[in-house]
User: Fold this.
Amino acid sequence: MAALSELYGDEHHPGRLNTGLTGTRREWRRQGLALAVKLAALRVARERGAQEVWTGNATTNAPMLALNERLGFRPRVAWIEMKWGGV
Assistant:
């Protein structure tokens, strides 16, 4: 496998699908594969009748931020992750 993009439903939001991990193996990067698999996921979402598609993005991953913006995703209010180190 050279690239993938996850697509999954949200039981609390009917009509909404989410793209999860989108990634490309290092040796295949910069060849348009992330764009291709993300577009394929959006086509499947449309075929399934999704009213909206959401995605997440690390703020440090500039290439994926740019790709998501290119595809029309727009930033929303973020959530806060918290860590407990006592394990």
Q: What stands out?
A: The mean pLDDT is 92. Residues 33-47 form the longest helix (15 residues).
